[in-house]
Protein: Endonuclease/exonuclease/phosphatase family protein
Amino acid sequence: MVQAYRADTGNGGEGPQPSGSRFRDLRDRLARDRGIWRRGIVLAGCSVLLTFVMLLHSHIPNTIGNLGSLTETFLPWIALFVPVLLVLGLVRRSATALIALLLPAVVWFNVFGGLLTDKSGGGGDLTVATHNVNADNADPSGTAQQVAGSGADVIALQELPAGQVKTYESALAARFPYHSVQGTVGLWSKYPISDTRPVDIKMGWVRAMRTTVATPEGKVGFFVAHLPSVRVKLHAGFTANQRDKSADALGAAIADERLDRVVLLGDLNGTMNDRSLNAVTSQMRSTQGAAGDGFGFSWPASFPMARIDQIMVKGVDPVSSWTLPATDSDHLPIAARVRL
Structure:
């Protein structure tokens, strides 16, 4: 009698399945699970909506609570919804939701991916810095010295209380022999300045100025501005109307500038994406966008979420742009190096 022996493999007598068989089994299970395509339609719709918001944000109306400008201010943060939808799509085991999620992911990287790379270079002729020092700053002298320590040749400060101007002047006098304070904004320079005057941005008091800096490479027109603050209120939305009017006035002043090389330093209370700042952004380049490393968020200092402090140029080539360490202000100071 011949007795046959069979090894006990624990899988019904079969050996290990090849990877191709496992793939076919998975494919077959997916094919049998018809609900994998029907589930997650709402999640897929959310992905499509995010995509439209990024592509068509300029068409979101500002007539209701300045919703368009509010969206554009925090537009990069829309990426946070992508991992949330990814997890929900996996939980729902929805192929439709996961495939639709590719739309906002691809569009976000197309719009903002360039900001994730380091575009800074070497060289340059002039280093500039700007800082909203905060009227309630408990250490104005230390703040001024910290910004001056960046090595900047020209510094602009905003939100200068009248009672602390002397403190800032004393702290910066040794490094910057030339300066001017107009209202609540000021500019300090290592090089001579001239033709300094306030700029009317339709606020009723001075929060912007213009001056000429005589650099070793020639004259450069400098603007310093602190546009009106904005607020998010439940009953009124994004209250930015006064800021928008001031931005238009500032843009007109820059357009009338006679010098070919212009630098704008200041707190614009808005980002480069905000269409309400078009009067300014349409004629100038952001140093951060052209030569920065990352988004360069500057506010709030405790957890920066938006770059509302700006260094912008016209007729000047940005070489590098960066944020500086925090001071006692609620804004981060920022700096840039440019080629004249």
Q: What stands out?
A: The radius of gyration is 28 Å. The chain has twelve helices and 14 strands. Residues 129 and 335 are 4 Å apart (CA to CA). The mean pLDDT is 90.
